[in-house]
Amino acid sequence: MHDLTSQPIMMIDSSPPLLHHYGELTRLPPQIPTLECNDLPSGAVVMKEYCQLPLIDLSCLNSTIERERLACAEAICRASSEWGFFQVVNHGISPELVRNMRREQVELFQTPFDKKATCGVLNNSYRWGTPTATCPRQFSWSEAFHIPLSRVSEQACYGEFSSLREVMMEFAAAMSKLARVLAGVLAENLGHPRGVFENICQEINCFLRLNRYPACPISSEIFGLVPHTDSDFLTILSQDEVGGLQLMKDSKWVAVNPNQDALIVNIGDLFQAWSNDVYKSVEHKVVANGKMERYSIAYFLCPSYDSLIGSCMEPSIYREYRSQVQEDVKRTGRKIGLPRFLL
């Protein structure tokens, strides 16, 4: 491990000042190891392989041939049960819109750190590093804007970044439509109407997260994003060509090869609970890259703050609970600690 107290390392510039804060964590008194400070859960094998996620052509959902529609829906549900992750192509979000959103995202992140941290753009949603980290293994080498969709249309949120507003509104609407199509297919598979989530997950309760993972001089020692599961119902991810996403499959980490034509979809904790474990919320992480920065955009399909979430079938292995997901997601983009709905 690098000695981060040494002058050469501390002189390496990082913007935001991630290296400085990581160095501060390394100087904290040693703690009793906890799950949150470890890379892997108990019993997991330290191994990395490359995988090809299930790839699903969503145009088949609109086929005039019933057999093709049913096969596509079955592929979505099978991937959600066996992998918790899958890729979709022909998803209805144009390559031009994705390019425009990425261009605006890059321009936003290229703004000097001091300005991003203080100008209040996008509802003051700028985040960097991991403020709650108490040990180095909890620290994420990344920065993000975590934006509630309830504020996306407000002109005042954009300040001088006026060209971002129209693109973000269009992108958010397209991701929202796609999320509801996928959630509807998954709900129907369990005997519920496709529109069951319309009232639970209203668009104003959902989030967009713009991510940047800067090139990291200590990439072998740190995460781009620490291992976690998502708290929401569904996450849809648009990522660039750099790669770095890994997920836990059969007790080992597997790396996901980036596909520029596809979006990645993953099941969140709420969908696993609602489906009574039919669909799986899978642990994943982002590895840091020593040479290249990485960009991604995530859409989170979330319930309203006071929604009462229960299992869609009986007997339930989860108790009903009033959702507190928004509190964590609003502050950090992910939950803090273990899922609070587990028995």
List the helices and strands and how they pair.
Layout: H1 7-10, H2 18-26, E1 45-51, E2 55-57, H3 66-82, E3 85-89, H4 95-109, H5 113-118, H6 121-124, E4 126-128, E5 143-148, H7 162-189, E6 207-213, E7 223-228, E8 234-239, E9 245-249, E10 252-256, E11 263-267, H8 269-274, E12 284-287, E13 294-301, E14 308-309, E15 321-322, H9 325-332
Parallel strand pairs: 1-10, 2-3
Antiparallel strand pairs: 3-11, 4-5, 5-6, 6-13, 7-12, 8-11, 8-13, 9-10, 9-12, 14-15
Q: H/E order of the elements? A: HHEEHEHHHEEHEEEEEEHEEEEH
**Number of distinct beta strands:** 15
Range of helix content:
25-40%
Q: Compute the number of structural domains.
A: 1
Tell me the β content: 15-25%
CATH class: Mainly Beta
The CATH topology name reads Jelly Rolls
CATH architecture: Sandwich
Q: Strands of the largest sheet, in order across it?
A: 2-3-11-8-13-6-5-4
Terminal residue distance:
39 Å
- Given the C-alpha coordinates, what overall shape results? globular
Look at the structure and name the CATH superfamily. Answer: B-lactam Antibiotic, Isopenicillin N Synthase, Chain
Low-confidence stretches: 1-13, 32-38, 40-47, 331-343
Average residue pLDDT: 82
What is the CA-based Rg, rounded? 20 Å
Number of DSSP helices? 9
Biggest sheet layout: 8 strands, mixed
> Structural class of the helices, strands and pairings?
alpha+beta
